[in-house]
Amino acid sequence: MPRGEGVRLQKVLAQAGVASRRAAEELIADGRVEVDGRIVTEQGIRIDPNVAVVRVDGTRVVVKEELVHLAMNKPRGWQCTMSDDLGRPCVGDIVSERVQAGQRLFHVGRLDADTEGLLLFTNDGDLAHRLMHPSYEVSKTYLATLFGAIPRDLGKKLRDGVVLDDGPVKVDGFALLDISNGLSLVRITLHEGRKHIVRRLFDHVGFPVGRLVRTDVGNIALGDQRPGTLRVLGRGEVGKLYESVGL
Fold this sequence. Notes:
Blueprint: E1 7-8, H1 9-15, H2 21-29, E2 33-35, E3 38-39, E4 46-47, E5 54-56, E6 59-61, E7 69-74, H3 91-94, H4 96-100, E8 106-107, E9 115-122, H5 125-132, E10 140-147, H6 154-160, E11 162-164, E12 167-169, E13 173-180, E14 183-190, H7 197-204, E15 209-217, E16 220-221, E17 230-232, H8 235-244
Helix pairs in contact: 1-2
Catalytic activity: a uridine in RNA = a pseudouridine in RNA
Pfam families: PseudoU_synth_2, S4
GO molecular function: RNA binding; rRNA pseudouridine synthase activity
């Protein structure tokens, strides 16, 4: 980069919310900042935020100003589309103001209309693609209310794997949380992205799903976010998300 072009590294770190400029200078002096794989200790170095890969303490810091990363709690009954020809409520309604303001947002994967919970949005197509691609094995966690009192060995059976009509599937984690009134509440973690995979899995073992809520995608948790709301992901959350897919 020609001398004098670009933005000073400490300013970039401050704008990204890492630290104040003065604290950013201390991070640089302490050798905790990396640019394009090289530790930088000199003050005043200039970088191009649109192409530089910056890490602090090994965690990626997203410094492109125009990048957007959002978490939505998708309500039950809403379509997972940006618009709906039949006029049904859809996730595009919740982000419509941002889209009208010129942001081109991708929803990361889908949740069927009857499934609620965590849905990520970004305008970074590379990130969206990798988060959805099975080779990166990003885990997803769900709370499922099942019809019937499940047997104790169901978790082992699902961890060992079962074969559905489109191939085998095994879960990464399974926990029975509660059984009452003929219903079982379970938590299930898997890194599958196939359509209706959780519902098909439980149908296959004879315990259909009533309510299904996605609570986590990778390191991002739904927490107590209210249905129908958006929140901007925090810097640490975004950094770990990029790290999980090798960006």
